[in-house]
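Methods: holo model generation. Sequences were used as deposited, without trimming of termini or removal of tags, and paired with ligand SMILES retrieved from the corresponding compound records. Each pair was processed once, and we did not select among multiple samples. The sequence and NAP SMILES for this entry were:
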Amino acid sequence: MATIGILGAGEVGSQLARAAVAHGHDVVLANSRGPETLTALVDELGPSARAAPVAEAAAAADFAIIAFPYRPDDDLPVDELAGKIVLDTNNYMAWRDGHHPVVDSGEQTEHELRQAQLPKSKLAKAFTHLQAPNLFRLAKNADDPARLALAVSSNHPEAVELVTRLYDAFGFDTVDNSPLSESWRSAPGTVMWQFHDTGQRREDLVRNLARARPGTRP
Ligand SMILES: NC(=O)c1ccc[n+]([C@@H]2O[C@H](COP(=O)([O-])OP(=O)(O)OC[C@H]3O[C@@H](n4cnc5c(N)ncnc54)[C@H](OP(=O)(O)O)[C@@H]3O)[C@@H](O)[C@H]2O)c1
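and the model returned the structure below.
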C-alpha cells in the first residue's frame, strides 16, 4: 500500500482519493488554495487522508497524481517529485486552457509538455478518459467479460506497470498507448473519446486508439 500525493482535489482528484482510500492507500491532498480548504473532504475520507501544501504532499508521496489542467507557467514541486512516478489526469481543451501551439501543430502532446515540466519524474497520462463520477460505477471484477479498459501513456515502463496495477485494483483493464508522443490518440475529440461516458472494453479501446486521426480537438 502506498502514500499517494494528490495534487488537485477537484472532481477527479477527490474521486481518485476516494478510490485510493477504499483500496487501502493513504492519500495526501493538496489544492491551490491551501489545506484548510480541504477539511470537509479529509473528514469524509477518514484517517487515511490528510491535506497539506503542494510541496509537502509531493514530498510525502510514494507516487503522485496531478489532477489539474496543464499551464505553461505551472510552478510544480519538481524536486519533491524527483525520481517518482507522476500520473497526470489532464485533458487539453483549448476552449478551457487556451491554445498551446506545439500541441495544436502535433509537434508535441500536452503530456510531453508536462513531462518536460517534471524532468526528474516518470510521467504517465492516466485516468483521463473516465468521467470521475463513473470510477466506482463502471468498475468490474477481473473475471467479468464486460470489464472495461483504460489507456495509459508513458515513456517509462515502470510507470505503465504501476498504472496497470492501479487500474486493475480499481476494476479496469489496461491498454498501453505509450509513449507520451502517442497520447494524442486518447485526447478529447478522438474516436475513443466518444465512449468516455460509457467506457469501452479492451479490444474496442485498442481499435479506437488505432482509428485516431490527428487534428481532432475541441
Ligand atoms: N472531471 C472529470 O470527470 C475529468 C475526468 C478525466 C480527466 N479530467 C481532467 O483532469 C483535470 C482536473 O479536472 P477536474 O474536473 O478535477 O478539475 P477541477 O474540479 O476544476 O479541480 C481542479 C483542482 O486542481 C486544483 N489546482 C489547480 N491548480 C493547482 C495547482 N497549481 N496546484 C495544486 N492544485 C491546483 C484546484 O484547486 P483550487 O480549487 O484550490 O483552485 C482544484 O482542487 C483536468 O485537466 C480535466 O480535463 C477531468
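The two ends are 38 Å apart (CA to CA).
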